[in-house]
Specification:
Elements: H1 2-11, H2 18-33, H3 37-58, H4 67-107, H5 110-116, H6 121-156, H7 165-173, H8 179-204, H9 210-240
Helix pairs in contact: 1-6, 2-6, 3-4, 3-6, 4-6, 4-7, 4-8, 4-9, 6-7, 6-8, 8-9
Length: 241
């Protein structure tokens, strides 16, 4: 914790050259955010479809109205899937990328060369990644919500379920709480900071050779996932209770 705190204090300072920072920021937004859009869309569509089908197959009581399927699907996607579960998936893709990239620079002594030249290497390398992921992750969350619900709507047209599209769409609109969308976006921004900063920490502090870079990537994904789940519990307690 001490090493992590000191690294963040070194990282979270004003950039020496803003033009270079913005150039790096655009590059990181594209690499960490835009390149993750396809996996978010694919996973969200399939998970939204599966959630709707499974709820439909398990709600067989005539006392439970069919629009409950759409309502439950919407709540699952908005409250947990599009923020927390998607962040766990991104921790695997984005977190390992950040840790391996910075770790490779450490073992090849590129970071040492920056320090010798008087460059704040933590600020130069890590800050654009943190800011870039925090800026773009709300876009990923919104795409996940939209495509997840679209997958549920597609499932309502399937003959494998006994729900009707009209009942499913009514359930999507039933008791809609707009705050849940903002709740999911706020959580995702916190998760983005956790993923980028923890992954950067493990990559920045690699000691040894190429084998240690692989271990750092694994540790970054595991620790990011654990901290995301802990943050999910804390934020839910703060924002919804």
């Amino acid at each position: 914790m001490g090493e992590y705190t000191l690294l963040m204090m070194k990282c979270l300072t004003l950039p020496d050259r803003w033009s270079m920072f913005f150039k790096q920021l655009i590059k990181e937004i594209y690499k960490l955010g835009v390149d993750s859009l396809w996996i978010v869309v694919i996973i969200s569509v399939f998970i939204g479809t599966v959630i709707a089908i499974q709820i439909s197959l398990n709600i067989s009581s005539p006392l439970i109205p069919k629009f409950t399927i759409g309502y439950t699907t919407r709540e699952i996607i908005l409250l947990e899937f599009s923020s927390s579960i998607m962040a766990l998936i991104l921790a695997g893709k984005v977190g390992s990328n950040i840790a391996s990239e910075i770790g490779t620079m450490r073992v090849t002594e590129q970071i040492d060369a920056m320090e010798i030249m008087g460059v704040n290497s933590a600020n130069f390398l890590i800050l654009p990644k943190i800011v870039g992921l925090m800026i773009f992750i709300p876009v990923l969350v919104i795409f996940s919500m939209f495509t997840g619900i679209a997958g549920g709507v597609a499932a309502s047209y399937s003959s494998a379920t006994d729900m009707t599209p009209s009942a499913f769409e009514f359930g999507l609109q039933f008791y809609f709480n707009q705050f849940y969308v903002w709740y999911s976006i706020i959580k995702s921004v916190v998760y983005a900071f956790i993923i980028a900063s923890i992954s950067a920490y493990f990559g920045y502090n690699v000691k040894g050779g190429a084998l240690e870079v692989g271990k750092a990537s694994t540790n970054a994904v595991v620790m990011s996932s654990i901290m995301i789940l802990m943050a999910d519990l804390v934020l839910t307690q703060i924002m919804l209770t």
